[in-house]
Amino acid sequence: MSSCRILQLRQSSQFFAVTRFPAFFKPPISTICFSSSNFRSGTGAVSSCNTLRRMNAHGVVPDVSKVTVVDDPSLLEEKAAAIRLAGPAKLQVIADFDATLTKYIVNGRRGDSSHGLLRQENAEYDAKRLALYQYYHPLEFSPSIPIEEKTKLMEEWWGKTHNLLIEGGLTYDSIKESVAASEIAFREGVVELFEFLEERDIPVLIFSAGLADIIEEVLRQKIHRPFKNVRIVSNRMEFNSDGRLISFKGKLIHSLNKNEHALDMAGPLHEHLGDSNGLNNLGASVKDRTNVLLLGDHLGDLRMSDGLDYSTRISVGFLNDNIENNIAGYSKAFDVLYLNDAPMWGVVNLVSQLWPTHN
Ligand SMILES: [Mg+2]
What we know:
This protein is of the alpha/beta class. It contains eleven helices and twelve strands.
């Protein structure tokens, strides 16, 4: 690990990591401190360290340095300088949804995913979808299945699941009720991040292999206000006049193709939505915005910017679980890594230090 200063000292069940930050990260040096049991379970580290405070009345962003790893501080500083120089008109944010914008642990348990929270009115169909999950999910992560074969399996899984939603007569009301009853929550600081970006007309594209209509409902119910700069690229449903699902629009997006065509799909979406609400500076801008801030919780999320010939990209990772086994790979792959289901305050801090004042 080149300039990263991660020291793993195993003493009396404590895990310590020391991380060096570029100058624009404050404070520059800090320490992660939490017990190994918290470390493994991915819970409790934040509160046990008592390091995080909500944004205070003066708008000061809480310090998350104790759960932050930066492998190459000078590279990060270089990238931040290039993005700062090009200005907000050249930046776009590309974010994964589940376990990136949302918390991994909610109320002490693994939080719901946007797909997993859905309950149909007909419980028989919930059981059928669960049976598909139990069959296909292990195949999705099987190391012995070639990618072409796996892609076909994923198409099969998503296709069957979508058909069950139609066949079972899913209503929009069930989506609303499912979201209301779900254990899903945004990371603290997500609203402040969206607000900061909205004020500067910086688009946020949320890429997901889940369901756009559910993600929108989660945004509506959990954030309570719309953001003109947030767009969702995901599987989109079509309902009839009775509010019953009749079909899916466009190309099927599953876990293995989510990144391939996402930017192509986002372009027309931006143009359309840009026209409809007068955000001309956002319309058709996806490919012109050649600097990217990418947020993800899987190494595969790094491919979300594949369709873009970007100039500078800062990638931010959230390593929520199994930290010990993944920290080396994740901290190499992402420019900034937040551990242990950290809040979004570090990203708020990062963008607000790019352009502290709004013209
Ligand atoms: Mg995710």
